[in-house]
Amino acid sequence: MQPTKVKTAVVGCGMISSIYIRNLSQMFSVIDLCAVCNRRREAAEARAREFGIARAMTIDEAAADPEIELIVNLTPAFAHYDIIKKMLLAGKHVYTEKVFTTDLEKSRELVALANEKGLYLGVAPDTVLGAGIQTARYLIDTGMIGEVTSVQMAVNRNQALNSEVFTFLQGEGGSLPFDVGVYYVGALVALLGSVTHIAAFGNPAPVHEPQMAFLNAGKEPWQIPGMNTVGASLRMENGAVCTVHMDGNTIGETQHAFTIYGTRGILKIGDPDKFADPITLILPENAPVQMPFTHGFDGKNYLGAPTAFDHYGHRGIGAAELAWALRKGRPRARLSGEYGLHCQEILQGMEIAAETGGVYEVQSRCEMKGLRPGYFSGMFGRAMRGDAEASLME
Ligand SMILES: NC(=O)c1ccc[n+]([C@@H]2O[C@H](COP(=O)([O-])OP(=O)(O)OC[C@H]3O[C@@H](n4cnc5c(N)ncnc54)[C@H](O)[C@@H]3O)[C@@H](O)[C@H]2O)c1
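The joint structure predicted for all components is written out below.
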């Protein structure tokens, strides 16, 4: 029997909200997106009109509304603590864009509050539930590369230049590891489980003189907080070693790398910031093979005419999976407090290890179950929408 839909409100009406609102209102049978909220009511009203959502309200009104069960928080990281706490205290389940907060202690406090109140608290990145990472997980679980021995991950951007356009990057949580590296760390945890120890070196972002005068005319120079370039070695609980290279102080032409080495083969993982970048299997005596996806949520638009934000893919699966966990009475969602705290502790642990010159011992742990394979987002040559949502139910 189809459970009752989870009455959901989106909070934050910025750039990423379009894809969330479209997907949450049309793609998942478990979600009833009944409201769009913002600090300024007019911005919420505009988004609600654009997507045909019944109600527009302020954040305080959403907290006080007895109909709303789940809040999907799409505000910048520095605003998360206050909004999430307000919603948990109001008895709402919360799914938030990454990261929980910019301070690990505050994130722990929120997870403890959610647990105490019996509420679900989930967190992005949800690209780890996409076709790419789930296919890689399935290949690892079925032994295609044997025992995992090591991992190499690298990502680069010009984070200071990016922060001229995405202004929230100028604040806490805007460094490359926290803003982009979190997709790599999230994928690492979703694929291989917990990290136990971290050694690292790092450098801060430079003080940035604005280059784009048309956007930032007359603005004083600024410096993105935190460590913007990190080289780290991680020890995984399964014994594998992982090399991390994240450079936000270089140019924006990303030279992405994500390779998992095993005793019997090697997997090359596509960009974990996307839902379905190619997964390539390398076995002895064979040419590398790009694997077919075993899972749905490939990031493509199956809902109708293409839109300007299709490249943001299947954002919203994390919230839908949490809604299914809630309706099915599972103890936790996949992108749970455990997942969010572990990813954040790894990011913060790299900074601490670099600052102290010591080895950081990770306190938290995370085990995430893979999604069931064989459910796809499109069917009959993509002429019809498929039933990938069914893979989120268990
Ligand atoms: N833009 C992207 O490509 C992208 C991709 C993935 C994830 N994200 C994440 O999604 C979140 C939002 O990103 P965005 O690009 O939509 O940002 P944005 O700046 O375009 O929009 C942010 C929204 O939050 C609201 N807001 C800002 N500060 C607030 C506060 N203190 N209290 C309440 N509301 C506040 C703003 O009014 C706005 O509606 C961030 O955490 C970001 O890391 C963004």
